[in-house]
Specification:
Elements: H1 8-20, H2 27-34, E1 37-41, E2 44-47, E3 60-65, E4 68-74, E5 77-82, H3 86-98, H4 100-111
Antiparallel strand pairs: 1-2, 2-3, 3-4, 4-5
């Protein structure tokens, strides 16, 4: 499965932003800055996007496990896109239920351009 990445226009905008700011950064560094990691556990990396032009407007986060990627909705809690192994998906669902208020708070922080708070496991 192909990774969930921003559209080419977003990558071009990120490159232009780096050039305009006078910094030398790779697209990967710029992408990481717009989609920071706020949790990591059991081999999974959890991120949330600051750039909603390429994502649906409802609360969600992104999870990576090896080569697998998925987008998980927060309200309602559901797999939106991508796929993960069944065990990891079950762990993520339980973690999302347990930490839903913190995840929704991070969604609001993201919308206001604030840094994301780390969310612990379990």
């Amino acid at each position: 499965m192909a990774p969930i990445l921003p559209r080419r226009g977003v990558l071009r905008a990120l490159e232009a932003r780096a050039t305009w700011a006078g910094t030398v950064r790779t697209v990967a560094q710029l992408y990481a800055a717009t989609m920071p990691e706020f949790a990591r556990f059991l081999g999974m990396v959890i991120t949330m996007s600051y750039d909603e032009s390429t994502h649906p407007g409802f609360p969600h986060y992104h999870a990576r496990y090896g080569e697998a990627e998925a987008m998980i909705g927060l309200a309602p809690i559901a797999l939106i896109a991508g796929s993960l192994p069944r065990v990891q998906l079950a762990v993520l669902r339980q973690w999302t239920v347990q930490h839903n208020p913190e995840l929704l708070d991070n969604w609001n922080r993201r919308a206001n351009g604030l840094p994301l708070a780390k969310v612990a496991y379990p």
